[in-house]
Amino acid sequence: MTSYHLPVMAAMVVELFSQCPGSCIVDATVGTGGHAEALLLTNDSIQVIGIDRDSSALEICKARLERFGDRIRLIQGRFSQIERLLGEMGIGTSQVTGILLDLGLNSLQIDTPSRGFSYMVEGPLDMRMDATQGTTASDLANEATENELVELFRANGEYQNARRVARAIVASRPLHSTAQLVDVVDRAVPASARKRKGHAAKRFFQAMRVYVNDEQAELAAVLDASMRLLSDRGYLITISYHSGEDGMIKAFMRYAETGGCQCPPQLPCQCGAVSLGRMIFRGARKPTRDEIDMNPRAKSARLRAFERVIQKGK
């Protein structure tokens, strides 16, 4: 397994899914197949359906998992389209026993300069997960207004230097390579801030990638769909890598657990809210130190898990 992208927190994912009944697990961010392989190896009674936007990753995944035969089915698409994609396979509401969302980039994307995801190597300013369609990071850098860039960077948690970097990007146009963007950020961000926060370009690259791939809207859509697709006692497991994603997931799971109830917590619900299930544990689980030492890219991972509970008559 180590010759491919290392799946983050794979042992915990396998353990959690072993606790839910049934045999149909959807890895909605299958990538090169790390988590799917771990699941198929440890439970010979399950079927995994893998979805991914990245055709290059799916080709590797197909070769990696072909030995599992019809226990693995792969399809290209956005995970926001999960209901339609599964429907085309004949899988509908309440028929899925587990859904996995590993929201990070895979090593193939990070380590391929031509994809433009990494601020560590030079390549075209692209950042599209599906490299065949959509707006590129170059389009964004060269066409967005200064205020639009400021809003984008601040939404991703970069408040202090958002205006400096946005102004520098506009002044440095045209920008077409990752190296050009890194240089602009390095010159715009004060040295004191670079020392405190690590590589200056990290948050700005992340913010542009989130925008280019419409990641917030994609995540909101798949979270909502998961509650319709999961069977009773089915599990939703998410792994996120930055506070924006983790905050969305946390808020969604809290809302799903309470059904949106606004009644005082010490009193019985009077508003008619219907709970969709329960959080399997409070807070987020983090990778162990041993895993981080073996795979430094796991450091920022946060895992959350939710059990769908379908109430009778609902």
List the helices and strands and how they pair.
Blueprint: H1 10-17, E1 24-27, H2 34-42, E2 47-52, H3 55-65, E3 72-76, H4 82-88, E4 96-102, H5 107-111, H6 137-143, H7 146-155, H8 162-171, H9 178-188, H10 191-197, H11 202-212, H12 215-229, E5 230-240, H13 243-258, E6 277-279, H14 289-294, E7 302-308
Parallel strand pairs: 1-2, 1-4, 2-3, 4-5
Antiparallel strand pairs: 5-7, 6-7
Q: Tell me, briefly, the overall form.
A: globular
Strand order of the largest sheet: 3-2-1-4-5-7-6
CATH class term of the largest domain: Alpha Beta
Measured by DSSP, the beta-strand proportion falls in 5-15%
- Give the termini distance in whole angstroms: 42 Å
CATH architecture label name of the largest domain: 3-Layer(aba) Sandwich
User: What class do helices, strands and sheet pairing give?
Assistant: alpha/beta
Fraction in helix: 40-55%
Please outline the major beta sheet: 7 strands, mixed
Mean pLDDT across residues:
93
CATH fold-level label of the largest domain? Rossmann fold
Low-confidence stretches: none
Number of helical runs? 14
